[in-house]
Amino acid sequence: MPAPLQSGVRASLGTLTGVAHAINQDTITHHPGHFSGVADGVGGGAHGEVASRVLMQQLSNGLPNNAVNAQAGLATIDRHIAQVLNELGDGPGASVFAAAWPLDTPQHWQVLWVGDCQVTHYQCAAERWQLAWQSQAQTYQAHQLTPPAGVAPDSPANMVGCGMSLAPGWHRMTVSATDRIVIASDGFHKAFTPSETLKLLDEVKAPLPLETAQQWCHLARQRGSQDDISVVILEIAPTALKRSWVLGAAVILCALCALCALCALSVTLGWFTT
Predict the structure, then answer these.
(1) Looking at the structure, do residues 65 and 188 belong to the same domain, yes or no?
(2) In whole angstroms, what is the distance from residue 58 CA to residue 61 CA?
(3) Residue 122: which domain range?
């Protein structure tokens, strides 16, 4: 069944609780036309599910418009999460996340991330999917940092809730009709390489079916992923960009009509002389 079309974007969402986890510490969020994201509560910290939920709520309430505002806003959210967890009385905790949202037009999108959740932009050419862009996970290995004792090199080196050690990732991208944006926690993207995800996309015909993301979560589980798994797939509908073009053309046409009417009135009233 195709995913519901709202604000020019089809969305498919899926999540699975980790094999040995009592609860799912991931939070997936999709506000049509406004904001989509995945947050992953950091394992080993207190109340990861609370940290991820608060992070998504706070971020979607006030989206930054540049990298400086993003860093300042996340610093405030970082302190807020620490305060919430402290009030619960179970020690420090944190979350990582990745999110994307449209800007002034359906073609222009903003991407923001901290830690090892990822956003990937795919484009289709000659009926084959291609990788257009992917965020770089903020891990110790990727940033050539020495992890603490007992921590794996591919663990997140940056988190929200316990003091951010790196600037957040920030990217602006331009999308075309039928492009797909995949936002996922490490429970998914550690199970599939980008080239393997391309093969998954080739098997998913447009329009994007509603059940696709949940199916991908189960496929990651079959591949041995033991962690919480969350996936958000967004498909840019052709009608979204068409509406944007039509609206722009209508504005220009109205302006030209108004100018013509003004010129005609000017001649009638004798505003112009020879």
Answers:
(1) yes
(2) 5
(3) 5-236
